[in-house]
Amino acid sequence: MEDPVPPLDQVQGKSQGQGSSFRRPKPTLSCNLCRRRNHAPTPLTTELHTGAPQPHADELVGAPTAASTPAESGSLWLNANESRYVGGAHWAAILDGISDLREDIDQQGQGSRPSHPQLLPTVDRSISRYFNQLDLAPSAVHSAQFLREYEKFWAAPTEAPIIWIGLLFSMLCLSALAEETADTWAGEAYNPIINTYRERIVQCLTIGEYTNKGPYVLETLFHYLTIEFSVRKDADKNTWLLLGTIVNIAMGMGYHRDSSNFPGLSPFVGEMRRRTWANLLQGDILISTQMGMPRLIKEWQCDVAEPRNLNDADFDEDTKVLPPSRPETEMTTALHIIARRRVFRAVGAAVDLTAAVVPLPYREIMRVDRMLQDAKDSIPLSLRMKPLQISITDSPQVIMHRIFISIMFHKGTIILHRKYLNTVQAEDDGVASVYSRNACLGACLCLVDIQQIFGEETRLGGLLHSVRW
């Protein structure tokens, strides 16, 4: 699809129009606590391509019409003592955008501005969809902690950190994507609200100086990466460059080291960091393999332990000692994170092996093949692939977890053994290559079967239609 929103590195916080009208002031929202900046943070791709000319925003997004992209006039405060204007990318103006959500979502035009009690149900439904339909949620946000922060935000909007507001926008965007794609066939345009959310996320990250790291930065960035990965075409270089920046920021924050190395981190923070790192490991392999590039995270650089099989209700910010993992026969919010991590570590080894620039002995191929098989065997029974005929009592989310884990196992097998499909290579390696050819062909046939399941069950009325995004 034509991408109407430039990536994070190319968005500058500024008003999109020169309209002469001004926003009606909201007495409950002010910018008294707005963070002042002495300098602007370095844009992402500018860091990676120093000196490269940056195209003008109009060149990136085309020439939108007034009907498709309303101009932002910023916000103007008037009282007896001062007249104060801020542009559309200012912290306070972005916060004002929260109160426009109901207008945008319901497309009510220029009607009266909704009050907080009117707005809350719409946002509540979106947040509920995020936690109940998206498998990303438990690895990025602790539900109980977020709920407390969410209620605090609505009680005092101006006191919320700007990066937290970016996190909220990212959650709303992912929720809108899930709702939109569930009812949208390929080729149809996304709801304009999705692009509005994307822009707000970027503005919050920029104003919050994401390069300085800090609370909510990595979670918001990974949400933004997931959004860009979803709406852009496969193998998009901007998504890959964004991934590289996020990996560097994560390592700069010590996420690649287990929290047990740092006594100052609470058990709660340490466990959430493990979940977040497992998610980043997954994103690295998915995006890097799409680009045909080596992965960015190397196993020897990391010592992050596996997350525990716990529900969010099992621990919180006040937890002094983490409880032991629940049995893997028990489905929790973290179980699919654990299963994916095991498979992705093996797939990562296959990616590293095939990226080697020197020939490797066949025993190395078989060593990694053994890793893949062990990872498959370690998948909890409830998340192992099974026929749909005996899955009809399982939720669509659980079925999709099984399918995704199975896809990644077969993808790793193909990556590892693909070169032995070449007849000349097979003849050079003799009988040993027969195993690789059979393994690769078998994985390909399994993926064809999965593709058929997707084609049938993601249609309207199918088992997976509600999670087809």
Alpha-carbon Rg, integer: 24 Å
- Could you report the average pLDDT, rounded to the nearest whole number? 79
SSE order? HHEEHHHHHHHHHHHHHHH
Report the structural category.
mainly alpha
Number of strands: 2
For the sheet with most strands, the description reads: 2 strands, antiparallel
Give the amount of beta strand, in percent.
under 5%
Q: Give the oligomeric state of the chains in this entry, treating copies of one chain as homo and distinct chains as hetero.
A: single chain
Distance between the termini: 15 Å
Poorly predicted spans: 11-72
What topology, given as strand order, has the largest sheet?
1-2
Instruction: Indicate the overall shape.
Output: globular
- Helix fraction bin: 40-55%
- What's the total helix number? 17
Short précis:
Residues 1-68 are annotated as: Disordered. This protein has 469 residues and is mostly helical.
